[in-house]
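Listing S7. Sequence submitted for prediction.
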Amino acid sequence: TMLGLDELKRLVGIAERAEAVLVVDETYRDFTHTGERIPLAATLSPSYGIYSGFELCEHAAIPGREEYLDSEKYEIKVRDWIAPGNITDVIARVNRARQGNRALQQLTNLRFLDVDSEQLLAYAKWDASRTNCVIVIVNNDPFAAHEATVLVPPDLFGLPEGASFTVTDAL
């Protein structure tokens, strides 16, 4: 089932109140195999996982099911990890961003941000000292680029009203 932004926010709220871990499985959709959706799973939670072969964009499904046809559940498979079309570079960049930002290594520091496009999802994470703050903006449309304005409340990062800050693209 594909979740909309409101439903995802509702589920995150339930998980936070219950002090539970929310597992979002987004790997079986055809369009997730181009690498665009990796940042969503990798930044919403301090831990994420991918199936072996995902890096090579293997995604043939069992007909009528959201399950890989030739997954490692059923066989040991020798793979060419540098085959053309792989997304290992995207995964490596995301993992470097995760390792370099303490805010992405925590679970209970998530706030969704207002964005004026239904195609984009925006949220912020920060560490306890608020010296490491991360804004994540994810395009939910794998086929087109989108623009939007994201409202970032300065108090979220301990800044006074009207303060400016520098944003660096980590990917």
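Caption to Listing S7: primary sequence and predicted structure tokens for the chain studied. Helices lie at 5-17, 38-44, 88-99. Residues 56 and 86 are 4 Å apart (CA to CA).
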